[in-house]
C-alpha cells in the first residue's frame, strides 16, 4: 500500500503552530549568540528551556495527530512563498516527521540537561548551548520540511552545527582538524544530495514531497537520483565510503557525540532514504539494493573498527557506524524494513545516547581520560553510571526483551527474508557487536584498577545521572512497545506505506536463535580476553587484522592515496603551470614593458631644448607629409 | 611678390626656431620666439593682400596683443627664476626628468 | 619697382639681423638685432597696404616689448654672455639640420605654389569706407568678442607679472643696529682698505699698500680686477699685477 495523500492543513491547533518547534531553539541560539557574554549566567537555562518548549510543542502536535483518522495524518503547513513560482516554504507534519521530532526534542532536551553538569566548568558553556540550540533547530527543519530545498537548508544547518561543535575546543589542533575533516567529507555527500535535487527538479519540475508521485518500477533517472541521494545519506550518516569523519568527530564534547553523532544527525541519512523511499527507492529496485549493500558493508566495517579501539568514545563511534549500517540495511528493504529501521533508529537514539553520556560520566570522573586500558573496576565507584551503561549495553547487543533485541532482530529477519546474503552478514555483525560491546564494558567497569595516580573516580551529580536513568528506561521498554504488535509499523504506514503482509515476531526462528548464539559467543570470548584475563596497560602489537581495524580499515589511508595525493599532484601541477606558464608570460610582459620603458624614459632628459628639437622635427615631418600627399 | 614675402617669412621663422634650439639664455630664447611670431605676422599680412581681405591683418593684430601679454608674463617668470637660481639658462631648469 | 627694391633691401637686412641675433654671444646685441628685424618688418607691413599694423608693430614691439627685453636684460645682468660650448650632445648639429630642412620645405612648398595676381586691398577698403574705418568695422563688429577678451588677457598678464615679480619679505628688515652688530661679529669690523693712488693709471684699479708696505688685495673691486685681467690692463709692477690677478680669480670662483 502506498502512503496516503498529503493534505493541506487548514484547521487550527498545534499542528498549524508546528513552526514553533523550530522557532524556539532558533530564538534561543540567536539570543545566546547576539547577547553573548551578557547571557553567561543564565544562558544554559535558556537553552534547556527552549529545547523543552520545543519538546512540548512536538508532544502536543503528536497528540493532535493521534486524534485524526489515518487518512488525514499527513498535514502540510504552508508558511510562505519561498522562491516564487518554484518552492514554497512549508512543514510536513506526518507520523514519520513527528517521530523524529519527538526523538530529537526528547533526547535533545535530556542531553541539554546533562550538559549543564558536564560543561559546568567550561568558560564557554553559554556558546555550547547556543550551538546545541542551533543544531536542534536545524535538525527539526530537516525532518519537518515538506520539500527537498528546505530539507537541504536543515541538512546544511546541522552540518554547520556539527562543525562548530566538533571544533568546540578549537584551541586543540586535533579538534580543529577533526571539525574540518567532518565538514569536508560532508561536502562530498552534500554534493550528491544537491545534484540529486537538481535532477529531481529537471525531471519532475517540483521539489515538494506532496507533488512527487510514488513509483512502482525504476527507470535510469530515478536510479541516478536514488544513488545521488544515497551518496548524500552516506556523507551525513558516515556510511561507506564516506565514513572516515565520524571517528575523528569524537574530538567534540561528549554530549555532542551523544546528540549529534549518535542519536540524531547521523541518522538523517536514514531519514532521507525512508522519506524518499516511495519516490526513488521502491521495493526491490536497484537503488534500494544499493542502500542495503552499503548498510551491510558499513555495519561490518563499524563493528570491526569497534573491536580494536581502546578509546571509549571511538569504540562507541564505531558501534554507531555499525548500528546505522543496520538501519540503512533495513531502509533498503522497503516498507517492512522502514518500520524496523526507524524503530532501531529510535531505540538506538536512546541506548546509544545513554552509553555516550555514560562514557561522558566516566570521563568526567577520570579527568577526561578516554583510554579504556586505564579504567577498570569502576562499577563500585560509579554505580548509577554503571547500571545505566549496562542497560544500554544489554540493549545494543540484543539481550532478549530489551529494546535492541526487538528492533535489530526485526531488521535481521526481514533482511534474511529479502536478501539472505546481507541478512547473514548482519547476523555476523550482531556477533561482533556482542564481542566489542562486552569488551568495552569489561575493560571499563570490571577487572583490576588500572587508573592513573591522580584519578579519583566519583559518581556524577544528579543533573547528569537523571538523564541517564531516563534514557536507560527508554532503552529497556521502547523496543518492545514499538515492535510487538507492530505499533510503529502501523503508525508509520500513512507516511511510508504498508507492506503487503504484516511481519510477525518469531523469537525462536533460525536467524533469531543463531543471532543470540553468536552474541553469546562474542560476549564469552570478550570475558575470557578482557574480563578474566589481565588487560595490558599498553596496547599489544596485535595481528594484521587488529592493526587493520585499529587504523579504521585503512579508510584514511585509502582516501589519502586515492583522492588527497592525486589532488595534491594536480594542485602542484597547476601551481607549476601557473608559476612558470601564466606568471611567466605575465611577468615577462611586465618585465619587457618595464625594461623598454626604463630605456625609453632616458629620452626625458629634462632639457627643454631637446624637447623643442623633437617638436621642430615633428613639424618638419608634418610639413613634408603634407607636401607629399596634399600637394600644397 | 607674394612668393618672395612668404619665403622671407619662412626663413625668418626657421632662423627663430634654430635660435630657440641652440641658445641657452632664456631671454634670447624668448627673443627668438618673438621673431617666429613676427614671421607669422608677415605671412598673414601677405596673404591678406593676396586674397584682398582685411581679416588677415586683424589676426596679425591679435597675435601682437597675445605676444605682448606673453612677453610680460614670460619675462616675469625669468626674473623670478633668476632671483632664486642666479641663472637665466634654460638648461639649468632640468629637474623634471626620468 | 619701388616695392621690389624695398623688399630686397629689407629682406637682406632682416635675414642678416635675424642671423646676427641668433649667433651673437651678447644678449644686448641680440636684442638690438631683433629691434632691427622688427623695424624692417614694420616697413614691409606699410609696403603691403597695412599701415595700421606697421604703426602697431613699431609702438608695441619696437617700443614696448623691446624696452621690456632690454629692461630685464639690465636687471638680470648685461655682461652675462653665453659660453660658446654646447652642453647637449648633437643639439647644435641637429638643430641646424632641422632648421634648414624646415626652411627648405617651406621654400619648396611656396615655390611650387602658383599664386594668381594679387587682389589688393582696395576693394575691401572701399567697402568699409576707408582703411581705418574698415579695420575698425571688423574689430568692433565681427571680432568684438575676441577684442574684449584680449583686454581680459592683458589685465591678467599685468596682474600675473606683478604677482610673479613681487618678492615677499620673509625676514624682518635689518636695522642699523643689526647691521652694526653683524659687522662687529664678523671677521672684519673695519671697512676694506681703499685703493691706492698712482699718477700712472686709474686710481680705482690700483691696490693699496698697507702700513707695513705689503699689497692689499682686498682694496681692489673684484669686478674691476676681472675686467683688468680680461682686457690685459695689468700694471707693470709684478706685485700689483699679482694682487689684481688673485682678486680676479677670487671673484670668478
Automatic annotation (TrEMBL), chain B:
Xref: Gene3D superfamilies: 1.10.287.3510
Its membrane topology: Multi-pass membrane protein
EC number: 7.1.1.-
Function of the protein: NDH-1 shuttles electrons from NADH, via FMN and iron-sulfur (Fe-S) centers, to quinones in the respiratory chain. The immediate electron acceptor for the enzyme in this species is believed to be a menaquinone. Couples the redox reaction to proton translocation (for every two electrons transferred, four hydrogen ions are translocated across the cytoplasmic membrane), and thus conserves the redox energy in a proton gradient.
Catalytic reaction list: a quinone + NADH + 5 H(+)(in) = a quinol + NAD(+) + 4 H(+)(out)
Keywords: Cell membrane, Membrane, NAD, Oxidoreductase, Quinone, Translocase, Transmembrane, Transmembrane helix, Transport
Subunit relationships: NDH-1 is composed of 14 different subunits. Subunits NuoA, H, J, K, L, M, N constitute the membrane sector of the complex.
The keyword Transport belongs to this UniProt entry's keyword annotation: yes
Record's keyword annotation contains DNA damage: no
Protein name as catalogued: NADH-quinone oxidoreductase subunit K
Family: Belongs to the complex I subunit 4L family.
Places the protein is found: Cell membrane; Membrane
Transmembrane annotation, as ranges: 6-22, 27-47, 59-82
GO molecular function, one term: NADH dehydrogenase (quinone) (non-electrogenic) activity
Highest taxon of source: Bacteria
UniProtKB/TrEMBL annotation, chain C:
Catalytic activity annotation: a quinone + NADH + 5 H(+)(in) = a quinol + NAD(+) + 4 H(+)(out)
Residues of the signal peptide: none
InterPro entries assigned to the protein according to its UniProt record, in alphabetical order: NADH_UbQ/plastoQ_OxRdtase_su6, Nuo/plastoQ_OxRdtase_6_NuoJ
Free-text function comment from the UniProt entry: NDH-1 shuttles electrons from NADH, via FMN and iron-sulfur (Fe-S) centers, to quinones in the respiratory chain. Couples the redox reaction to proton translocation (for every two electrons transferred, four hydrogen ions are translocated across the cytoplasmic membrane), and thus conserves the redox energy in a proton gradient.
Gene3D superfamilies linked: NADH-ubiquinone/plastoquinone oxidoreductase chain 6, subunit NuoJ
Protein family according to the UniProt entry: Belongs to the complex I subunit 6 family.
EC identifiers of the protein: 7.1.1.-
Transmembrane segments: 6-23, 28-46, 52-73, 93-115, 135-164
Entry keyword set: Cell membrane, Membrane, NAD, Oxidoreductase, Quinone, Transmembrane, Transmembrane helix
Name this protein carries in UniProt: NADH-quinone oxidoreductase subunit J
Chief localisation class: membrane
Membrane-topology annotation of the record: Multi-pass membrane protein
Superkingdom of origin organism: Bacteria
GO MF term set: NADH dehydrogenase (quinone) (non-electrogenic) activity
Coiled-coil residue windows: none
Subcellular location as annotated: Cell membrane
